[in-house]
Amino acid sequence: MDRKLIKEVRPLGFPWETLDPFLFCAYHRDEYPEGNGSMGLSIDKMQGRNIGQDFHLKDGYRMYHGQRIPGFPYHPHRGFETITINKEGVVDHTDSLGASGRFGAGDVQWMTAGKGVQHSEMFPMVNEHAPNTLEIFQVWLNLPAKKKMVAPHFKMLWKEAIPKVVQKNDAGRGTETDVIAGNYDGIQALPPTPDSWAADPLNLVTVLTVKLDPEASWRLPATDPAVNRALYFYKGSNLEIDKGQIPVGSHVVVDAGQDLEIRNGHSTGFVLVLQGRPINEPVVKYGPYVMNTEEEIRQTMRDYGRTQFGGWPWPEQEYVHAQDAGRFAKHADGRVEKPQANTL
């Protein structure tokens, strides 16, 4: 019997629903105005906002949990990983291990929370005389039970090193694919963090962002049908898959055991691809904690109450770096790395 290529199509919500081994994906696009000189919002632009819990899109942006600067002040995680893909804007990272960093458009931060870490993700408005648009994805990738209590770790995938596959058809219509995890068209991504589910190539974890010119086509070859494969069509007009029309704002689950071909509509299209072999273990979530049992969640809460996962070594909850800091990563061992072209 022939299998259907498209298993399911549903509208994108917030956050985006994902399939095992992923937990969810949060997509943020905020068109922040010019900064106030302290990388935050001026007082007049704070009016009418539920500061501290500002998730309602007003005037094109949100403050999230930020009081002065938009973003997510320090908060704990245990038992999973975050993959933060930055497409536009600036993200400042600090954590309870003393590590820190700033990454910009095109960069990716991969963080294994493991046995527990606190971190802050702030969106400093570094431009005082121009808009500060932010566009990021944060993908939560689960860890198997045997890896949930590994030591926390983060690494930067700088845009200069992330493989990009550019393809054009006879009419000059092209696609650009950023290979963030896995392998595409024979091009291998940079290594993920060492304890990641993605670190084992047998798990076929693949994370791609795809930009399609109007009327361009893009192909993803078949793989093991036991793998979960989903597309997130978040910007554009429409896609054609298997002779069916897919509207923008769609989550599309497809059969990974069949070749996938996409034909884009009349405007530039943008797609996120998440693929991976399922972990197939129980998932128990409580806010920022993801474990396998309710008792493990209770133990996590006791552990955090006792240790604060190392405490907070920074002078502010929503700490940001110097306005002219450029892109960098300072690791817990004191090692500092910078990309080849250290500009925003």
Automatic annotation (TrEMBL):
InterPro entries named among the record's database cross-references: Pirin (IPR012093), Pirin_C_dom (IPR008778), Pirin_N_dom (IPR003829), RmlC-like_jellyroll (IPR014710), RmlC_Cupin_sf (IPR011051)
Domain Pirin N-terminal: 51-141
Pfam families recorded: Pirin (PF02678), Pirin_C (PF05726)
All residue ranges annotated as the Pirin C-terminal domain in the record: 208-310
Source domain of life: Bacteria
Family of the protein in this entry: Belongs to the pirin family.
Designated name of the protein: Pirin
Origin organism lineage: Bacteria, Pseudomonadati, Bacteroidota, Flavobacteriia, Flavobacteriales
